[in-house]
Amino acid sequence: MSLDVPAALLEQAEAGRVDDAEFVDCVRQSLPYAWSVVSQVAAEAQDGPAEFADHAVPPPSEAERGQLLRALASDAIRGGLERHFGVKFAFQNCHRVAAFKLSAVGGVTYQEFISPVAQLRNQSPELRDC
Question: Could you tell me which of 49, 100, 111 has the C-alpha nearest to residue 78?
């Protein structure tokens, strides 16, 4: 599913004027499963003592997996979500979503999470679901 862009927002985009809040609201309405995952991990990251929180449950269907891929593979969508929630998202293996506190970005834990080693470790048969 692509973003379901209301006509008024599309007109604003064609005129070169899109408010971040309106864009993020379009994402929220268009990608409800992805929104639920990223909002959950963002809240846990901000409220908890750890440097990050993650969600590693495979989506219930390919439609939901597609929502995560759209939300986190798009620079515009991911950036909008990161600004909205005040975190840095990281994504592995088509469904493992993490939200890092901004203070942790660049640190050891973050660098390990986004490393090729971590990505390869998440490709084992029991974790591979995409």
Answer: 100
